[in-house]
Amino acid sequence: MKVDIVTIFPEYFAPLDLSLIGRARTSGLLDVAVHDLRNWTHDVHRTVDDTPYGGGAGMVMRPEPWGEGLDAVATPGARLVVPTPAGSPFTQAAAQELAEAEHLVFACGRYEGIDQRVIDEAATRMPVTEVSLGDYVLFGGEVAVLVILEAVVRLLPGVLGNADSLLEESHTGGLLEAPVYTKPSTWRGHEVPEILRSGDHGRIARWRRDQALLRTAVRRPDLLAAVPPEKLDKRDVAL
Ligand code: SAM
């Protein structure tokens, strides 16, 4: 996958050299380029913002540097992703959809956001997704892009050492994942559930399913209510 990120803070993306994303880059599964939006300004102050039409607090990102920047990096076939608290909620399903793209371009807003004409004009030429991380407001889109990229890149074939990790995760089958444990079996007086040490794979699978159902019912009843009935078995319904 090819990824271009346009931002006024390229330094924010140093973590993309680390861990599994860094390894995906060195192995050639992921090609990331980070661009400074100010490269597409033409005044001595390298200005990217101005006061809002209609008045009000704060500054708005000007369309000209964005237009030139997107013209340069969004080559045919690219898909533009614009983080904004006014976007549709970012979910695992949205991550899966983005993971199928060959070329993603991310536009990181700052201040009061990007002049809307940038997004509207881009949408005449390429698919555009305006996406929100949640119902709160960040300083800028950089952290949002790091989050979105982590969720997307781990879905790319070959990135995770064991692709089975993706199968029973929270937000994949509709339920939250059951709690997980490792050695030692007793720690500070807390025991690992006996069943997980039993070696009985059938009982362990059932226990995990029950725990996932219980956890989801308690913590996220909205998710449980959305599970289609055909995805539940008789034991689930008895719970
Ligand atoms: N004035 C905007 C509004 O009320 O919708 C908020 C602008 S925010 C201070 C600046 C930038 O941070 C946004 O353009 C966006 O890139 C990013 N941002 C802030 N909150 C976000 C969220 N919940 N999800 C995704 N991006 C967010």
UniProtKB/TrEMBL annotation:
Cross-referenced Gene3D superfamilies: 3.40.1280.10, tRNA(m1g37)methyltransferase, domain 2
Enzyme class: transferase
Entry's localization field: Cytoplasm
E.C. no: 2.1.1.228
Free-text function comment from the UniProt entry: Specifically methylates guanosine-37 in various tRNAs.
Similarity comment: family membership: Belongs to the RNA methyltransferase TrmD family.
Name used for this protein in its record: tRNA (guanine-N(1)-)-methyltransferase
Gene: trmD
